[in-house]
Amino acid sequence: MSTSEVDILIIGAGPSGCVAAGYLQKQGANIKVVEKSKFPRLVVGESLIPRVMDHFEEAGLLDNLNKQNFQKKPGARFIRGQVISIFDFSKKFGEGWDWTWQIPRADFDKIMTDTLIEKGVDISFETTVTAISFEGSDSITTIVDKEGNESQIKAKFVIDSSGYGRVLPRLLHLDKPSKLNPHSAIFSHVKDINRPAGVEGTQISFDVLDTEVWLWVIPFSNGNTSLGIVADTAFIEQLAANGDTALALKKAIQLSDFYVKRFAGTEFLFDPIHLKNYSAAVTKMYGDGFALTGNSSEFLDPVFSSGVCFATESGILAAKLAWREINGEQIDWEKDFTQYMQRGIDVFTTYVKEWYTGNLQTLFFHRPENLDVKEKVCAVLAGYVWNEENPFVKKHNRVIRSIAYMLENNKELSDNIEKTYQ
Protein backbone atom coordinates (compact mmCIF):
# COMPACT_ATOMS: atom_id res chain seq x y z
CA MET A 1 0.00 0.00 0.00
CA SER A 2 1.42 3.37 -1.03
CA THR A 3 1.95 6.07 1.60
CA SER A 4 2.36 9.83 1.19
CA GLU A 5 3.23 12.48 3.75
CA VAL A 6 1.80 15.97 4.19
CA ASP A 7 1.74 18.70 6.80
CA ILE A 8 -2.04 18.92 6.89
CA LEU A 9 -4.72 16.64 5.48
CA ILE A 10 -8.09 18.28 4.78
CA ILE A 11 -11.13 16.02 4.51
CA GLY A 12 -13.81 17.65 2.36
CA ALA A 13 -13.72 20.26 -0.42
CA GLY A 14 -16.77 22.34 0.46
CA PRO A 15 -16.48 25.95 1.65
CA SER A 16 -14.83 25.01 4.96
CA GLY A 17 -12.20 22.80 3.37
CA CYS A 18 -11.60 25.27 0.55
CA VAL A 19 -10.94 28.29 2.75
CA ALA A 20 -8.65 26.16 4.93
CA ALA A 21 -6.79 24.93 1.85
CA GLY A 22 -6.62 28.42 0.32
CA TYR A 23 -5.15 29.91 3.46
CA LEU A 24 -2.62 27.10 3.94
CA GLN A 25 -1.54 27.20 0.30
CA LYS A 26 -0.71 30.88 0.73
CA GLN A 27 1.48 29.97 3.73
CA GLY A 28 3.43 27.41 1.71
CA ALA A 29 2.10 24.40 3.63
CA ASN A 30 2.26 20.90 2.15
CA ILE A 31 -1.43 19.95 2.08
CA LYS A 32 -3.71 17.33 0.60
CA VAL A 33 -7.50 17.55 0.18
CA VAL A 34 -9.65 14.43 -0.18
CA GLU A 35 -13.29 14.70 -1.22
CA LYS A 36 -15.77 11.82 -1.37
CA SER A 37 -17.96 13.35 -4.10
CA LYS A 38 -17.40 14.09 -7.75
CA PHE A 39 -17.71 17.81 -8.48
CA PRO A 40 -19.93 19.52 -9.42
CA ARG A 41 -22.36 18.05 -6.92
CA LEU A 42 -25.68 19.10 -5.47
CA VAL A 43 -25.70 20.29 -1.87
CA VAL A 44 -27.77 22.60 0.32
CA GLY A 45 -26.44 25.88 1.73
CA GLU A 46 -27.20 28.26 -1.13
CA SER A 47 -27.70 31.49 0.79
CA LEU A 48 -24.56 33.10 2.20
CA ILE A 49 -24.22 35.86 4.78
CA PRO A 50 -21.72 38.75 4.63
CA ARG A 51 -19.22 37.45 7.20
CA VAL A 52 -18.14 34.72 4.76
CA MET A 53 -16.73 37.32 2.39
CA ASP A 54 -13.92 38.04 4.86
CA HIS A 55 -12.95 34.35 4.74
CA PHE A 56 -13.04 34.02 0.95
CA GLU A 57 -10.87 37.11 0.69
CA GLU A 58 -8.31 35.89 3.22
CA ALA A 59 -8.15 32.49 1.52
CA GLY A 60 -7.42 34.04 -1.89
CA LEU A 61 -10.72 32.86 -3.43
CA LEU A 62 -12.71 36.09 -3.59
CA ASP A 63 -11.45 37.46 -6.92
CA ASN A 64 -12.36 34.35 -8.90
CA LEU A 65 -15.72 34.01 -7.18
CA ASN A 66 -16.50 37.65 -7.90
CA LYS A 67 -16.06 37.05 -11.64
CA GLN A 68 -18.85 34.45 -11.77
CA ASN A 69 -21.82 36.84 -11.68
CA PHE A 70 -23.57 35.06 -8.84
CA GLN A 71 -26.75 36.74 -7.62
CA LYS A 72 -25.87 39.54 -5.24
CA LYS A 73 -27.56 39.38 -1.84
CA PRO A 74 -27.81 42.80 -0.10
CA GLY A 75 -30.16 41.58 2.61
CA ALA A 76 -33.06 39.23 3.33
CA ARG A 77 -36.83 39.41 3.40
CA PHE A 78 -39.14 37.76 5.92
CA ILE A 79 -42.85 37.48 5.13
CA ARG A 80 -45.73 36.65 7.45
CA GLY A 81 -49.17 37.15 5.92
CA GLN A 82 -49.43 40.79 4.88
CA VAL A 83 -46.45 41.94 6.95
CA ILE A 84 -43.00 42.07 5.35
CA SER A 85 -39.73 42.67 7.19
CA ILE A 86 -36.67 43.49 5.09
CA PHE A 87 -33.16 43.50 6.55
CA ASP A 88 -30.66 45.59 4.61
CA PHE A 89 -27.08 44.57 5.43
CA SER A 90 -25.89 48.12 4.77
CA LYS A 91 -28.01 49.23 7.73
CA LYS A 92 -26.56 46.94 10.37
CA PHE A 93 -24.80 47.69 13.64
CA GLY A 94 -21.01 47.80 13.38
CA GLU A 95 -18.52 47.29 10.58
CA GLY A 96 -18.43 44.50 8.01
CA TRP A 97 -19.47 43.49 4.51
CA ASP A 98 -22.81 44.87 3.28
CA TRP A 99 -23.54 42.12 0.77
CA THR A 100 -22.84 38.56 -0.25
CA TRP A 101 -24.26 36.02 -2.77
CA GLN A 102 -27.08 33.59 -3.44
CA ILE A 103 -25.42 30.65 -5.15
CA PRO A 104 -26.08 27.28 -6.76
CA ARG A 105 -23.63 25.35 -4.61
CA ALA A 106 -22.73 22.93 -7.40
CA ASP A 107 -21.28 25.83 -9.42
CA PHE A 108 -19.92 27.74 -6.45
CA ASP A 109 -17.96 24.86 -4.92
CA LYS A 110 -16.63 23.82 -8.33
CA ILE A 111 -15.24 27.33 -8.90
CA MET A 112 -13.49 27.22 -5.52
CA THR A 113 -11.87 23.83 -6.12
CA ASP A 114 -10.89 24.80 -9.69
CA THR A 115 -9.24 27.93 -8.29
CA LEU A 116 -7.34 25.91 -5.69
CA ILE A 117 -6.17 23.37 -8.27
CA GLU A 118 -4.92 26.21 -10.48
CA LYS A 119 -2.93 27.43 -7.48
CA GLY A 120 -1.33 23.99 -7.09
CA VAL A 121 -3.45 22.45 -4.32
CA ASP A 122 -3.64 18.64 -4.51
CA ILE A 123 -7.33 17.61 -4.42
CA SER A 124 -8.49 14.01 -4.88
CA PHE A 125 -12.18 13.68 -5.71
CA GLU A 126 -14.26 10.50 -5.37
CA THR A 127 -11.95 9.46 -2.56
CA THR A 128 -13.29 8.02 0.67
CA VAL A 129 -11.69 8.03 4.12
CA THR A 130 -12.12 4.54 5.61
CA ALA A 131 -9.91 4.64 8.73
CA ILE A 132 -7.66 6.89 10.79
CA SER A 133 -5.22 6.23 13.61
CA PHE A 134 -3.27 8.65 15.79
CA GLU A 135 0.09 8.42 17.47
CA GLY A 136 0.23 11.63 19.45
CA SER A 137 -0.67 14.39 17.03
CA ASP A 138 0.61 12.46 14.00
CA SER A 139 -1.96 10.47 12.07
CA ILE A 140 -2.26 7.84 9.38
CA THR A 141 -5.43 8.07 7.29
CA THR A 142 -6.52 5.26 4.98
CA ILE A 143 -8.28 6.33 1.78
CA VAL A 144 -9.86 4.51 -1.16
CA ASP A 145 -10.15 6.10 -4.61
CA LYS A 146 -12.90 5.56 -7.19
CA GLU A 147 -11.05 2.59 -8.71
CA GLY A 148 -10.89 0.89 -5.33
CA ASN A 149 -7.19 1.55 -4.80
CA GLU A 150 -6.25 1.87 -1.13
CA SER A 151 -3.49 4.15 0.13
CA GLN A 152 -2.44 5.97 3.27
CA ILE A 153 -1.61 9.56 4.14
CA LYS A 154 0.65 10.49 7.02
CA ALA A 155 -0.16 13.94 8.38
CA LYS A 156 0.94 16.17 11.21
CA PHE A 157 -2.61 17.48 11.49
CA VAL A 158 -6.07 16.66 10.08
CA ILE A 159 -8.85 19.18 9.44
CA ASP A 160 -12.20 17.46 9.04
CA SER A 161 -14.38 19.61 6.78
CA SER A 162 -16.47 16.69 5.57
CA GLY A 163 -19.82 18.35 6.26
CA TYR A 164 -22.77 15.99 6.52
CA GLY A 165 -20.33 13.12 5.90
CA ARG A 166 -19.02 13.78 9.43
CA VAL A 167 -15.99 11.55 8.89
CA LEU A 168 -14.08 11.96 12.16
CA PRO A 169 -17.18 12.21 14.37
CA ARG A 170 -18.23 8.86 12.89
CA LEU A 171 -14.82 7.16 13.06
CA LEU A 172 -13.95 8.56 16.50
CA HIS A 173 -17.48 8.31 17.97
CA LEU A 174 -17.81 12.03 18.68
CA ASP A 175 -21.47 12.59 17.74
CA LYS A 176 -23.97 13.81 20.30
CA PRO A 177 -27.62 14.98 20.06
CA SER A 178 -28.29 18.58 19.07
CA LYS A 179 -29.77 20.97 21.64
CA LEU A 180 -32.36 22.04 19.06
CA ASN A 181 -35.74 20.42 18.51
CA PRO A 182 -35.88 18.09 15.48
CA HIS A 183 -36.63 19.89 12.22
CA SER A 184 -36.42 18.67 8.65
CA ALA A 185 -36.52 20.16 5.15
CA ILE A 186 -37.43 19.29 1.57
CA PHE A 187 -35.98 21.32 -1.29
CA SER A 188 -35.42 21.44 -5.03
CA HIS A 189 -34.71 23.93 -7.84
CA VAL A 190 -37.11 25.27 -10.46
CA LYS A 191 -36.74 27.25 -13.64
CA ASP A 192 -38.26 30.52 -12.42
CA ILE A 193 -40.39 31.22 -15.50
CA ASN A 194 -42.73 33.61 -13.65
CA ARG A 195 -39.95 35.60 -11.98
CA PRO A 196 -40.94 39.28 -11.59
CA ALA A 197 -38.65 41.95 -12.97
CA GLY A 198 -36.38 44.00 -10.74
CA VAL A 199 -35.58 43.52 -7.07
CA GLU A 200 -38.71 41.47 -6.39
CA GLY A 201 -37.48 38.73 -8.69
CA THR A 202 -34.05 38.43 -7.12
CA GLN A 203 -34.84 38.89 -3.42
CA ILE A 204 -34.19 35.99 -1.06
CA SER A 205 -37.27 35.44 1.06
CA PHE A 206 -38.49 33.41 4.01
CA ASP A 207 -42.26 33.01 3.95
CA VAL A 208 -43.56 32.14 7.43
CA LEU A 209 -46.55 29.81 7.04
CA ASP A 210 -46.82 28.99 10.75
CA THR A 211 -44.57 29.56 13.77
CA GLU A 212 -42.47 26.48 12.99
CA VAL A 213 -43.19 26.22 9.25
CA TRP A 214 -41.55 28.36 6.60
CA LEU A 215 -40.74 28.34 2.90
CA TRP A 216 -37.42 29.50 1.50
CA VAL A 217 -37.13 31.16 -1.92
CA ILE A 218 -33.57 31.74 -3.17
CA PRO A 219 -33.30 33.15 -6.71
CA PHE A 220 -30.05 32.55 -8.64
CA SER A 221 -28.56 34.64 -11.43
CA ASN A 222 -28.90 31.70 -13.87
CA GLY A 223 -32.70 32.02 -13.88
CA ASN A 224 -33.31 29.13 -11.50
CA THR A 225 -34.61 29.41 -7.95
CA SER A 226 -34.19 27.16 -4.92
CA LEU A 227 -37.41 26.32 -3.10
CA GLY A 228 -37.52 24.61 0.27
CA ILE A 229 -39.96 23.88 3.07
CA VAL A 230 -38.70 23.71 6.66
CA ALA A 231 -40.77 22.54 9.63
CA ASP A 232 -40.75 20.30 12.64
CA THR A 233 -40.03 16.76 11.52
CA ALA A 234 -43.55 15.48 12.22
CA PHE A 235 -45.04 18.11 9.87
CA ILE A 236 -42.55 17.26 7.11
CA GLU A 237 -43.20 13.53 7.50
CA GLN A 238 -46.93 14.21 7.18
CA LEU A 239 -46.37 16.18 3.95
CA ALA A 240 -44.31 13.34 2.52
CA ALA A 241 -46.39 10.51 3.96
CA ASN A 242 -45.64 8.13 1.08
CA GLY A 243 -42.07 9.29 0.60
CA ASP A 244 -43.18 11.43 -2.35
CA THR A 245 -40.99 14.50 -1.88
CA ALA A 246 -42.24 16.18 -5.06
CA LEU A 247 -45.83 16.00 -3.87
CA ALA A 248 -44.76 17.23 -0.43
CA LEU A 249 -43.03 20.31 -1.84
CA LYS A 250 -45.98 21.04 -4.13
CA LYS A 251 -48.27 20.92 -1.09
CA ALA A 252 -45.94 23.33 0.71
CA ILE A 253 -46.06 25.81 -2.17
CA GLN A 254 -49.86 25.70 -2.08
CA LEU A 255 -49.70 26.86 1.54
CA SER A 256 -47.98 30.11 0.54
CA ASP A 257 -50.39 32.88 -0.41
CA PHE A 258 -47.41 35.01 -1.41
CA TYR A 259 -45.73 32.51 -3.77
CA VAL A 260 -48.41 30.09 -4.94
CA LYS A 261 -49.04 31.93 -8.23
CA ARG A 262 -45.35 32.26 -9.02
CA PHE A 263 -44.46 28.61 -8.42
CA ALA A 264 -47.65 26.51 -8.62
CA GLY A 265 -47.33 24.00 -11.45
CA THR A 266 -43.61 24.64 -11.94
CA GLU A 267 -41.64 21.46 -12.58
CA PHE A 268 -38.74 20.62 -10.30
CA LEU A 269 -35.31 20.34 -11.91
CA PHE A 270 -34.46 17.34 -9.72
CA ASP A 271 -36.38 15.11 -7.35
CA PRO A 272 -36.74 17.15 -4.15
CA ILE A 273 -34.26 16.14 -1.46
CA HIS A 274 -35.45 15.32 2.05
CA LEU A 275 -33.08 16.42 4.84
CA LYS A 276 -34.22 14.65 7.99
CA ASN A 277 -33.42 15.93 11.50
CA TYR A 278 -30.54 17.95 10.11
CA SER A 279 -29.26 19.57 13.34
CA ALA A 280 -26.05 17.97 14.67
CA ALA A 281 -23.46 18.38 17.42
CA VAL A 282 -20.28 16.76 18.75
CA THR A 283 -18.75 15.99 22.14
CA LYS A 284 -15.61 17.96 21.24
CA MET A 285 -14.43 20.11 18.34
CA TYR A 286 -10.75 19.16 18.41
CA GLY A 287 -8.31 16.57 19.68
CA ASP A 288 -4.61 15.85 19.55
CA GLY A 289 -3.79 16.29 15.87
CA PHE A 290 -7.25 17.13 14.51
CA ALA A 291 -10.00 19.74 14.39
CA LEU A 292 -13.61 19.54 13.24
CA THR A 293 -15.01 22.37 11.13
CA GLY A 294 -18.33 23.30 9.58
CA ASN A 295 -21.14 20.75 9.55
CA SER A 296 -18.78 17.98 10.64
CA SER A 297 -18.95 19.59 14.09
CA GLU A 298 -22.17 21.58 14.48
CA PHE A 299 -25.14 22.38 12.27
CA LEU A 300 -28.04 24.44 13.59
CA ASP A 301 -30.81 25.35 11.15
CA PRO A 302 -31.11 26.94 7.69
CA VAL A 303 -33.42 29.77 8.81
CA PHE A 304 -30.63 32.38 9.09
CA SER A 305 -28.19 30.83 6.59
CA SER A 306 -25.53 30.42 9.26
CA GLY A 307 -24.21 27.05 8.04
CA VAL A 308 -21.64 28.23 5.49
CA CYS A 309 -20.60 31.07 7.80
CA PHE A 310 -19.71 28.66 10.61
CA ALA A 311 -18.05 26.39 8.06
CA THR A 312 -15.74 29.08 6.72
CA GLU A 313 -15.14 30.71 10.12
CA SER A 314 -14.08 27.42 11.68
CA GLY A 315 -12.23 26.25 8.56
CA ILE A 316 -9.91 29.22 8.28
CA LEU A 317 -9.43 29.41 12.06
CA ALA A 318 -8.48 25.72 12.27
CA ALA A 319 -6.03 26.22 9.40
CA LYS A 320 -4.34 29.15 11.13
CA LEU A 321 -4.04 27.39 14.47
CA ALA A 322 -2.86 24.09 12.96
CA TRP A 323 -0.18 25.84 10.90
CA ARG A 324 1.06 27.75 13.94
CA GLU A 325 1.18 24.53 15.96
CA ILE A 326 3.08 22.67 13.25
CA ASN A 327 5.61 25.49 13.29
CA GLY A 328 6.30 25.04 16.98
CA GLU A 329 3.85 27.43 18.63
CA GLN A 330 1.92 26.30 21.69
CA ILE A 331 -1.80 26.53 20.88
CA ASP A 332 -4.61 26.59 23.41
CA TRP A 333 -7.20 24.84 21.26
CA GLU A 334 -9.86 25.00 23.95
CA LYS A 335 -9.65 28.77 24.27
CA ASP A 336 -8.66 29.79 20.75
CA PHE A 337 -10.85 27.35 18.82
CA THR A 338 -13.66 25.73 20.82
CA GLN A 339 -14.52 28.65 23.10
CA TYR A 340 -14.24 31.16 20.25
CA MET A 341 -16.47 29.13 17.91
CA GLN A 342 -18.87 28.30 20.72
CA ARG A 343 -19.53 31.99 21.39
CA GLY A 344 -20.82 32.43 17.86
CA ILE A 345 -22.68 29.11 17.88
CA ASP A 346 -24.38 30.06 21.15
CA VAL A 347 -25.60 33.35 19.69
CA PHE A 348 -27.09 31.74 16.59
CA THR A 349 -28.52 28.89 18.68
CA THR A 350 -30.43 31.45 20.72
CA TYR A 351 -31.74 33.12 17.58
CA VAL A 352 -32.85 29.79 16.10
CA LYS A 353 -34.57 28.75 19.32
CA GLU A 354 -36.28 32.13 19.68
CA TRP A 355 -37.39 32.00 16.05
CA TYR A 356 -39.26 28.77 16.70
CA THR A 357 -40.72 29.99 20.03
CA GLY A 358 -42.10 32.94 18.05
CA ASN A 359 -40.29 35.58 20.13
CA LEU A 360 -37.93 36.58 17.34
CA GLN A 361 -40.82 36.65 14.89
CA THR A 362 -42.50 39.13 17.23
CA LEU A 363 -39.47 41.42 16.84
CA PHE A 364 -39.39 40.97 13.06
CA PHE A 365 -43.07 41.63 12.38
CA HIS A 366 -44.09 44.10 15.08
CA ARG A 367 -45.28 47.44 13.71
CA PRO A 368 -44.11 50.13 13.92
CA GLU A 369 -40.55 48.85 13.56
CA ASN A 370 -37.90 49.84 16.08
CA LEU A 371 -34.91 50.76 13.91
CA ASP A 372 -32.42 50.44 16.78
CA VAL A 373 -33.52 46.86 17.39
CA LYS A 374 -33.50 46.15 13.68
CA GLU A 375 -29.94 47.32 12.99
CA LYS A 376 -28.59 45.24 15.88
CA VAL A 377 -30.48 42.12 14.80
CA CYS A 378 -29.32 42.77 11.22
CA ALA A 379 -25.67 42.53 12.32
CA VAL A 380 -26.39 39.08 13.73
CA LEU A 381 -28.12 38.02 10.51
CA ALA A 382 -25.03 39.22 8.63
CA GLY A 383 -22.90 36.79 10.65
CA TYR A 384 -21.10 39.24 12.94
CA VAL A 385 -21.92 37.16 16.01
CA TRP A 386 -18.54 37.65 17.69
CA ASN A 387 -18.90 41.44 18.00
CA GLU A 388 -19.82 41.84 21.66
CA GLU A 389 -20.15 45.60 21.26
CA ASN A 390 -23.56 44.63 19.91
CA PRO A 391 -25.90 44.06 22.89
CA PHE A 392 -27.90 41.62 20.75
CA VAL A 393 -24.75 39.49 20.67
CA LYS A 394 -23.43 40.10 24.18
CA LYS A 395 -26.79 39.53 25.91
CA HIS A 396 -28.36 37.27 23.32
CA ASN A 397 -29.70 34.83 25.91
CA ARG A 398 -32.24 37.33 27.26
CA VAL A 399 -32.58 40.36 25.00
CA ILE A 400 -34.93 38.78 22.43
CA ARG A 401 -37.20 37.22 25.02
CA SER A 402 -37.35 40.44 27.05
CA ILE A 403 -38.14 42.72 24.13
CA ALA A 404 -40.72 40.29 22.70
CA TYR A 405 -42.48 40.30 26.07
CA MET A 406 -42.57 44.10 26.14
CA LEU A 407 -43.88 44.34 22.58
CA GLU A 408 -46.58 41.75 23.20
CA ASN A 409 -47.68 43.60 26.33
CA ASN A 410 -47.67 47.04 24.69
CA LYS A 411 -44.85 48.36 26.83
CA GLU A 412 -42.71 51.15 25.42
CA LEU A 413 -39.12 50.43 24.48
CA SER A 414 -36.47 52.87 25.67
CA ASP A 415 -34.65 54.90 23.03
CA ASN A 416 -31.53 53.30 24.47
CA ILE A 417 -32.38 49.69 23.79
CA GLU A 418 -29.96 48.39 26.39
CA LYS A 419 -32.00 50.08 29.15
CA THR A 420 -35.03 48.14 27.95
CA TYR A 421 -33.83 44.75 29.13
CA GLN A 422 -31.48 45.66 32.00
Description:
This protein has 422 residues and is an alpha/beta fold. It has helices spanning 15-27, 51-58, 62-66, 105-118, 167-171, 199-202, 233-239, 245-254, 260-263, 307-326, 333-357, 359-365, 371-381, 391-394, 396-408, 417-420; strands at 2-11, 31-34, 71-73, 75-80, 83-88, 100-102, 122-124, 128-135, 138-144, 150-160, 175-176, 183-191, 205-210, 213-219, 224-232, 273-275, 281-282, 286-287, 290-292. Strands 1, 2, 7, 8, 9, 10, 18 and 19 form an 8-stranded mixed beta sheet that branches. Helix 2 packs parallel to helix 10 (307-326) and helix 10 runs antiparallel to helix 11. The longest helix is centred in the last third of the chain and has 25 residues, at 333-357. The radius of gyration is 22 Å and the shape is globular. It starts with a strand and ends with a helix.
Features:
16 helices, 422 residues, alpha/beta, 36% helix
Q: What's the rounded overall pLDDT mean?
A: 94
What is the percentage of strand-forming residues?
15-25%
Low-confidence stretches: none
Which structural category do the helix and sheet elements fall into? alpha/beta
| Relative helix content | 25-40%
Number of strands: 19
Radius of gyration of CA atoms, rounded to a whole number:
22 Å
Main pleated-sheet profile = 8 strands, mixed
Distance between the termini: 64 Å
Distinct helical segment count: 16
The global form is globular
